[in-house]
C-alpha cells in the first residue's frame, strides 16, 4: 500500500483536503476578496443563505459527477427540475392528490426520464449529449404543456416546509438534505462496488467489459439516479417558491457541470470525487452571491459562469495532456 492510500484509509479528512487543495485555495481567496469588497458577505445569515442557494446545484451535481465519471453528460437535469416541480404542485392543486402521492409521482417522473436516458445510451450507443439534449426539450415541453405556460401557486404549509423549514430551528432543511446526500453519495462512489464499476467504465470501457463489469446496468442506473436527484431538486425548489414554474431550472445543468469540472471531475471520464464537486458548487455559489451583493447584473453573471466553465475545461485538458506526457516518459525510461 502506497503512502497516498495509507493517508486515505487512516486520515480521510486529511486526504480529502489535500486532494482538493487547489479548489479550496480558490474558494478562500474569492471569499476573502468578497469580504473586503462587501462586508455583508461574511455574516452568519449570508453564509446560511449561500448554503441554501447552492443546495439545489449540489443535488444536481452529485448525479452529474457520476455521469461524467462514467464518460457521459446529462443536459436534461434542468428541465427535469422544471417538469417535476411544476407537475408535483399541479398534481396537488389541480388534481387533488395528497402531498405524499404527488411527491412520489414527481420523483417517478424524474426516474422515468433518467431511465429513458440510460436505456438509449446503454442499448443504442447514442452519445449521452444527444440523448439528453432531446429529453431536455421533451421534459421542458411536458412542463409547459401541463401548466399551459403558467405558474401554479400553492399555499399548503406542509409542502412549503420541505423547502423553507429548519432542522432544530437552525439548519435550513435544504441544507440538511444536501449534507445527507453528500455523505450518501460519497460513500456510494468511494466505498462500494457500484462506485468502483463507475470509475472502471469511465476509465477504460473495454477493460471494464473484459473484467465482467455490467456496463449497461451501471449506465442505466446512474442516469436513473441522476433523474431522481433532479426531480428532488425540482420539488424542493417548488416548495421554496410556493409554486410550480415551468420556466424554473433554466441553465441549472450548466451550473452542475461547472461545479463538477471546477471540482476536478475529468470530462474524459474515470476521474473525480464528490468532495471536489461540493467545493466546486460552493465556489460557484460564493461567486453568484458576491456578485448579487455588489449589484452586478444577472446577465454579467452568466458571462462570468461561462468563463469559469471555459477556464476549468482548458485546465482539465492541460492536466490530461501533462498526465499523458508523464506516462510516456515512464514507459520510455
UniProtKB/TrEMBL annotation:
<feature type="transmembrane region" description="Helical">
    <location>
        <begin position="259"/>
        <end position="287"/>
    </location>
</feature>
<keyword id="KW-1133">Transmembrane helix</keyword>
<feature type="transmembrane region" description="Helical">
    <location>
        <begin position="58"/>
        <end position="85"/>
    </location>
</feature>
<dbReference type="GO" id="GO:0022857">
    <property type="term" value="F:transmembrane transporter activity"/>
</dbReference>
<keyword id="KW-0472">Membrane</keyword>
<feature type="transmembrane region" description="Helical">
    <location>
        <begin position="220"/>
        <end position="238"/>
    </location>
</feature>
<dbReference type="Pfam" id="PF02653">
    <property type="entry name" value="BPD_transp_2"/>
</dbReference>
<protein>
    <submittedName>
        <fullName>ABC transporter permease</fullName>
    </submittedName>
</protein>
<dbReference type="GO" id="GO:0005886">
    <property type="term" value="C:plasma membrane"/>
</dbReference>
<feature type="transmembrane region" description="Helical">
    <location>
        <begin position="97"/>
        <end position="120"/>
    </location>
</feature>
<feature type="transmembrane region" description="Helical">
    <location>
        <begin position="126"/>
        <end position="146"/>
    </location>
</feature>
<keyword id="KW-1003">Cell membrane</keyword>
<feature type="transmembrane region" description="Helical">
    <location>
        <begin position="166"/>
        <end position="189"/>
    </location>
</feature>
<dbReference type="InterPro" id="IPR001851">
    <property type="entry name" value="ABC_transp_permease"/>
</dbReference>
<feature type="transmembrane region" description="Helical">
    <location>
        <begin position="21"/>
        <end position="38"/>
    </location>
</feature>
<keyword id="KW-0812">Transmembrane</keyword>
Amino acid at each position: 500500500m502506497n503512502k497516498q492510500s495509507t493517508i486515505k484509509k487512516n486520515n480521510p479528512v486529511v486526504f480529502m483536503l489535500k486532494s482538493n487543495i487547489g479548489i479550496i485555495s480558490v474558494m478562500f481567496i474569492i471569499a476573502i476578496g468578497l469580504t473586503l469588497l462587501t462586508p455583508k458577505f461574511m455574516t452568519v445569515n449570508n453564509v446560511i443563505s449561500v448554503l441554501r442557494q447552492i443546495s439545489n446545484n449540489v443535488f444536481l451535481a452529485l448525479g452529474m459527477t457520476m455521469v461524467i465519471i462514467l464518460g457521459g453528460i446529462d443536459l436534461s437535469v434542468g428541465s427535469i427540475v422544471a417538469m417535476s416541480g411544476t407537475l408535483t404542485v399541479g398534481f396537488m392543486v389541480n388534481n387533488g392528490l395528497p402531498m405524499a402521492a404527488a411527491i412520489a409521482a414527481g420523483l417517478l417522473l424524474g426516474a422515468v426520464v433518467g431511465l429513458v436516458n440510460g436505456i438509449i445510451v446503454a442499448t443504442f450507443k447514442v452519445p449521452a449529449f444527444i440523448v439528453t439534449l432531446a429529453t431536455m426539450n421533451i421534459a421542458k415541453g411536458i412542463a409547459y404543456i401541463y401548466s399551459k405556460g403558467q405558474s401554479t401557486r400553492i399555499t399548503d404549509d406542509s409542502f412549503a416546509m420541505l423547502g423553507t423549514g429548519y432542522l432544530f430551528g437552525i439548519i435550513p432543511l435544504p441544507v440538511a438534505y444536501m449534507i445527507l446526500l453528500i455523505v450518501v453519495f460519497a460513500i456510494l462512489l468511494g466505498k462500494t462496488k457500484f462506485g468502483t464499476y463507475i470509475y472502471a467504465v469511465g476509465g477504460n470501457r473495454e477493460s471494464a467489459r473484459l473484467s465482467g463489469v455490467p456496463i449497461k446496468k451501471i449506465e442505466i442506473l446512474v442516469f436513473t439516479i441522476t433523474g431522481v436527484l433532479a426531480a428532488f431538486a425540482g420539488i424542493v425548489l417548488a416548495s421554496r417558491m410556493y409554486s410550480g414554474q415551468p420556466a424554473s431550472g433554466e441553465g441549472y445543468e450548466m451550473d452542475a457541470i461547472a461545479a463538477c469540472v471546477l471540482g476536478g471531475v475529468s470530462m474524459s471520464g474515470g476521474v473525480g470525487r464528490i468532495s471536489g464537486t461540493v467545493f466546486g458548487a460552493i465556489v460557484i455559489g460564493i461567486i453568484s452571491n458576491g456578485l448579487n451583493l455588489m449589484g452586478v447584473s444577472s446577465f454579467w453573471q452568466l458571462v462570468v459562469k461561462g468563463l469559469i466553465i471555459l477556464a476549468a475545461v482548458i485546465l482539465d485538458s492541460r492536466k490530461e495532456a501533462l498526465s499523458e506526457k508523464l506516462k510516456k516518459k515512464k514507459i520510455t525510461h
